Amino acid sequence: MRPTEICAALVIAAVTAGIVLTVTAAPAASPSLAVGPQYETTHVYVAPEELDRFSNALVATFGGTKSPTAMISITPAPSETMWQAVFTPAGTFSVFGFKTPIPYPFGIERTGYLVSDFDAAIDSAKVNHADIVVAPFSDPIGRDAIIAWPGGVYMQLYWHRAPPNQASLQTVPENRVYISPDRADDFVRDFGAFAQATVVSDDRNAPGIGIGKPNEGYRRVTMDSLFGKVAVLATDGHLPYPYGREIMGYDVDDLSDTLAKAKTAGASVVIEPYSVSRRRAAMVEFPGGFMAEIHSDKNK
Hints:
The protein is an alpha+beta fold. It has helices at 3-16, 51-62, 118-127, 181-195, 255-264, and strands at residues 40-45, 65-66, 70-72, 81-88, 91-98, 111-114, 131-139, 142-149, 153-160, 174-179, 198-207, 217-225, 228-234, 248-251, 268-276, 279-285, 291-297. Helix 2 (51-62) runs antiparallel to helix 5 (255-264).
């Protein structure tokens, strides 16, 4: 008997017996506040004189395009910055070259997430234990706020009055969150609820070579949502340079080819390629000091 037939039979039986039934529908799932991983922007702060050199190196390494440089004010306190957006198949960047001192706490947020409903996103962040570090404010094209999750993970939420229309990414970058073991569960629970994320894996003894400590293990949780991918790296903080300095990992088809392009564009390979689990990875420092993990799936 199909479920609808079972329900009908129960109703008929109840009516025959003179019983009043109240049927309550299951609550509908809340719609995702995310718009898409192409709108997760890595925030990079460089010296103004390094801005073009850095953005050119990104495009030379990953492909894509960049916007013209604009002089804007993006903070609620008075400030002025040069700004470029860089659109690559491997991820999107917002690059800032401040001409004035940078108002606190700008510069410590790692990424910006575009949301479909700004007020609902702020409410959801609060419900899920995020601190609203910079209260909502208006910018020339929308609204912004800076929030912090358990473990001190700072992010921007932003909304545009005119919906943007960016191309989908070829590969989705990995937001690499270094956090203490004591706060890992809190972050996974709270950010996961906000993002409606799925925990893809939770390895409590991941190979330590992935954080520069080949003789030790650590906990590595991977999450996926419409906002993008997150890798939670729960460590004791005793990390060799440059691990912990990178905030994003970029997935490419051919690691060797990408590294060659990066070096030609003026970047330095800080950690030579190594193999871990199903990927080959390296650490690259771009002009201006931005550190990135770049990896490719060994099965590609």
